[in-house]
Amino acid sequence: MSDRQPPLDPDLLLQAYAAGIFPMAESRHDPDLFWVDPRMRGVLPLSEFHVSRSLARRLRRGAYSATLDADFAGTVDGCADREETWINGQIRSLYLELHARGHAHSLEIWQDDLLVGGVYGVTLGAAFFGESMFSRRTDASKLALAHLTGHLRRCGFQLFDTQFQTEHLASLGAQEIPRAEYRKRLATALEAEADINHPPFDPAPHWVMQRNTQMS
Questions:
Q1: Model-level pTM greater than 0.90?
Q2: Interior angle at CA 100, CA 95 and CA 102, nearest 5
Q3: Which of 5, 17, 63, 183 would you label with 189, given CA atoms 20 to 30 Å apart?
Q4: Which residues contact 157 (CB under 8 A, 6 or more apart)?
Q5: What does the pLDDT look like over 75-130, one tens digit per residue?
Q6: Could you give the angle at the alpha carbon of 113 between the alpha carbons of 133 and 171, nearest 5°?
Q7: Which residues neighbour 31 within 8 Å (Cβ) at sequence distance 6 or greater?
């Protein structure tokens, strides 16, 4: 379902997430937004994140650092830095405002003091609504998701909404569920409480590997 809407404000945007819908733009230069309510919804079960052998090697090798909310704007801009993007100026401004209010967060991956990958999303109750991710080095987005899923579990989150299913997300354990089932899981997560800052983010790679149990 998609319907053209007037300009949004952060409060209405949070109400939309609570109702199970989210906004997108047709392109970077399209000033309009539309609501999206997928018939099949992508979710990433926090207890089933898949760590492949190659990703486990990268986690053990280190040579990168992971941070939480160190560069939210840079992460959003990294996600929009592609030939085609649904992140227009209004989307960027809305999520920067949500970040300032404590409702939007980013997980960054750094190498050689450069931001090389990351993911950002919105939090409500015990739900994390993943918006977008990017990678400028091999497996940087996978590293970001590995650290994020481990941290969300530690903080008591119950739902990681990926919006859509992709081959990339499926390889990491994401699943596709019908809209009705998603709404049930969302309602349960919204009734619970979780704080992405408590406990504090632990960037240690060995901690991520110990907590993400699906390895092959």
A1: yes
A2: 90
A3: 5
A4: 46, 123, 126, 127, 128, 189, 194, 196
A5: 999 999 999 999 999 999 999 999 999 999 999 999 999 999 999 999 999 999 99
A6: 30
A7: 25, 88, 89, 90
